[in-house]
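Below is how a single chain appears once it has passed through the pipeline. First comes the sequence as given, then the structure the pipeline wrote out for it. We keep one example in the README because the format questions we get most often are answered faster by looking than by reading.
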Amino acid sequence: MIQVFRAKLHGLHVTGADVDYHGSITLDPAHCRLAGIHPLEFVDVWNKSNGSRLRTYVIHGEEGSRCCVLNGAAARLCQPGDEVIICASEYCAPDHLYEAESKVVMFKKGTNEVDKVLRYDVSKGVENDFEFKVVDATSNELHPLQNVPPVDVHSLRRDLAQRGWEPTEIDQFCDSHFG
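Resulting structure:
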């Protein structure tokens, strides 16, 4: 078993810190649903503003409030205005990665308004057990990655045929990886 990323709120801004509350992080349930983070689920919180890291559980705040409130001891590590990453994970066998539905909800700079939702996709490649790509979850289009050369699909098809792949296998592979 390996621990893998499952859901993330990336670039959310802390809206409150209440050291006297009985603990946890209070989040907008709309943000949680979009990412797939559940109430009472343990999450890691990484503060981009000061580098602190903590683990706590999620409780829901008011729907549509765009809140991110650190409570209890966590309030000492995150203050209003800090930019944080909130990550939920799970344990799975490596071959489960092919079915994983990992989502990243990204926020507009300086706000808690959703900018975009990405999905991380892991598939079995031709030569590698794990191929990775980032997909815009709203349109299923590949998210542009810097410094990644384009794939020459015609050369890939020729190479697969030379390796003994059947035409239908090549079509299925290319359709699933390149649309």
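DSSP finds three helices and eleven strands in the chain.

See the next section for the split statistics.
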